[in-house]
Specification:
By secondary structure, the chain is α+β, with helices and mostly antiparallel strands. The protein is built from seven helices and six strands, in the order βααααααβββββα. Strands 1-2-3-6-5-4 form a six-stranded antiparallel barrel. It is globular and about 70 Å long.
Length: about 325
């Protein structure tokens, strides 16, 4: 059982860890902003610490590269700067600041869409390194273009999205290969791997922003993970954070019945899970419907029966 979810059964409603699809957003967006923002904190401390750690590992690996070290260091620093620019742009959007309203900044966004210019300086001497960096560039530009499209068509009342962000890049395959322990002693491979993971951390943030403005109508795409559920509340680990005591809209989807239940919620507890770089968010349901509570109680009982059967099977 997850360490975050062990306590709490000495309450009126029984709690249980259960796999569930959910969608949670603040009840009210940020007011008087240049661009629509949900009000969630997409850069909580746990995430910021993780991003800085991945950046450190990238720089540390680059320092171990002996061949063309000066050129390689410059290229990696340039790419890190481009990735951080994407992160800064995503952060501005997340708090309702429209980058398009700053002409010089918006021109810089357009410049970044031209790609990692410095990587071409190594194309002739190190074609393999250039190829690896090009895969990082491909995914970076794809997401930056989608972010730019959203910014260009969004308003204070609506954040424009084109749908789910694309997946299945060649970079993802490369990361899987480079994570093999046999590459752990090769500085260049480790530098490429950490750089790709550094980028991925920022892309995940934008994916959260994008999805929060899109998937509400598509419950089959809601996150599906273990949550600590009772008829009066829910506790889950999230990559984002809400203000303590803030109001949130909670939607639960039960696939087997194709049933969606909606609760008005209040955030009653926040804790950092540094190990998983997540925020543990506990929410109370405010004035829940009795029929919905009965349904959840029934689902909890089903889950407990499943757990008992599993225990009997393997004991």
């Amino acid at each position: 059982m997850n360490k975050w979810f062990r306590k709490g059964n000495a309450r009126r409603f029984h709690r249980v860890d259960i796999p569930i699809r959910f969608f949670i957003v603040p009840s009210s967006p940020i007011k008087d902003r240049e661009i629509y923002a949900t009000g969630a904190d997409y850069f909580p401390p746990t995430l910021v610490d993780m991003i800085e750690t991945k950046k450190y590992h990238t720089i540390h690996s680059v320092e171990k590269i002996k061949e063309q070290s000066e050129l390689v260091t410059k290229i990696f620093n340039d790419v890190i700067e481009d990735i951080e620019f994407f992160g800064e742009c995503a952060k501005n959007v997340s708090i309702g600041v429209n980058p398009k309203n700053d002409v010089s900044y918006w021109l810089k966004v357009k410049e970044k869409l031209e790609g990692f210019s410095s990587i071409h300086s190594i194309k002739a001497s190190s074609p393999k390194t250039f190829q690896y960096l090009s895969l990082i560039e491909e995914k970076y530009l794809s997401y930056l273009q989608r972010l730019t499209n959203s910014i260009g068509q969004s308003t204070p009342e609506h954040f424009y999205v084109e749908g789910l962000l694309p997946i299945g890049y060649k970079l993802d395959e490369m990361i899987g290969v480079f994570q093999n322990p046999k590459f752990s002693k090769i500085p260049l491979i480790q530098a490429i791997l950490h750089l790709a993971e550094f980028l991925e951390a920022y892309l995940d943030v934008y994916r959260q922003i994008n999805d929060d403005n899109y998937i509400k109508q598509f419950p089959e795409n809601w996150p599906n993970q273990i949550g600590n559920l009772s008829a009066s509340g829910l506790a889950v680990l999230l990559p984002k954070r809400f203000e303590l005591y803030s109001r949130v809209d909670v939607y639960l989807y039960f696939e087997h019945d194709n049933k969606i239940i909606n609760f008005d919620g209040s955030v009653v507890d926040l804790r950092e899970d540094n190990e998983n770089h997540r925020e543990r968010v506990a929410i109370n349901f405010e004035f829940p419907n009795g029929n919905d509570q009965d349904y959840i109680q029934n689902e909890i009982q089903k889950q407990e029966v499943k757990e008992c059967m599993k225990f009997a099977l393997y004991s």
